[in-house]
Amino acid sequence: MWAMVQKEFRQLRRDRRTVAMMIVMPLVLLVVFGYAASFDVTEIKTVVVGPDAPAVAERLREPFVVDRVEPQQDREDAVATLRDGRAQVAIVTGGQPQALVDGADLFAARAAVTAFRQAAAQAGASVPEPEVLFNPGLETSVIMVPAIVGVILAFVGVVATSLGVVRERQAGTLEQLAVMPFRPTDVFVGKVLPYFLIAAIDLTVITVVGNTLFDVPFRGSVLTLALGAALFLFVTLGLGVLISTVSQNQGQAIQLAFMTLLPQILLSGMIFPLHSMAAGVRWIGYVLPLTYFIQVSRGVMVRGTPIEALALPLTMLAVLGLAVFGLSLVRFRRDLAPAGRARPRAAEASGTVAAGAR
Q: Residue 192 class from Cβ within 10 Å (0-12 exposed, 13-18 middle, 19+ buried)?
């Protein structure tokens, strides 16, 4: 028995990725759930418009944090502010006050509705009844389906792509491709394009099913969502190829893919509100591609946000895509080069042996 124990420890010592996963992943989960796993919303970004905006803004208390005061604007401007994701609550003054709440930001919306109703119970009719926009029923499915679209695209881009490329290396076909008259870029694009098409089909199916079964609205532009999905896939496909270049087998690829997907699911704002996380953990979320795709998908589908208001997340996806895709292409070329040189040397050696035998 002791010999078996020693053998297992020797194998674990050689398999450093598994050991790292066994040690690092519990620490990551501890930090995430300790600092990020919170549904509590303590600050609600608020804009106040209308002729009495300055006076009303001074009377607002926590959890409402006044971001802007616009005396010259009206209800239409307030709705546009919420649609573009620039605030979570808009208060319209002048005449009968109105409190507009962005239902696409589910946890902030629930906190705002509760705060308004508690204030109304204490102060009477002077506090307006909140009007929830974009997701009037505050249904979880309305905000989860657009996020799940991103998870599915990430799964196809990272897991399926990395496994596919590693499988080629294990089967030896990657070496055959290296000695064929193909440029490394041609091989690279040929490997990732099928997964791009599969992900595009998944995007269409999930969007249609979500709209049909869960009554998830689609208020924005199809082209804007397609652009966001293409940029997001640009990142995830590159990440999948990058994982494949540092993995020797499919088991290692799955481990690394899992280690990249889990933080994205937990820290992107899909489950826990990003603005409720501790500052140190929140900044991790700001470098994750799923964070920005969720902003695009929820904005387009739920709010009908126009493309100009989504310039920041789209730009961040493009920057991340160029960085990850470029790095993965460089490593993929480097992997192909030794394979291409090894094949001719093997053939030359075989010819030398044959000549000697004659």
A: buried
pLDDT at 41 > cutoff 90: no
Taking a C-beta distance cutoff of 8 angstroms, is the pair 133, 103 a contact? Answer: yes
Q: What is the pLDDT of residues 99-110, one digit of tens each?
A: 999 999 999 999
User: In whole angstroms, what is the distance from residue 220 CA to residue 206 CA?
Assistant: 16
Q: Which residue has the tokens 């280690």?
A: 259
Report the side by side order of strands in the sheet with 98-102. Answer: 64-70, 44-49, 89-92, 98-102, 130-133
Lookup: tokens for 219 = 């208020």
> Taking a C-beta distance cutoff of 8 angstroms, is the pair 196, 233 a contact?
yes
DSSP-assigned states of every residue in 164-224? HHHHHHHHTHHHHHHHSS--HHHHHHHHHHHHHHHHHHHHHHHHHHHHHHS-----S-HHH
The DSSP 8-state label assigned to residue 160 in this structure reads I
Per-residue model confidence (pLDDT) at position 17: 63
Nearest to 281 by CA among 269, 293, 289: 269
Q: At which residue do the structure tokens 């998944």 appear?
A: 202
The residue whose two tokens read 């006044």 is 66
Burial of residue 172, with CB atoms counted within 10 A of its CB: 0-12 exposed, 13-18 middle, 19 or more buried: exposed
Q: Residue 323: in which H helix or E strand, if any?
A: helix 311-357
Cis-peptide into 306, omega within 30 deg: no
pTM (2 d.p.):
0.83
CA–CA dist 328, 185 (Å, integer): 11
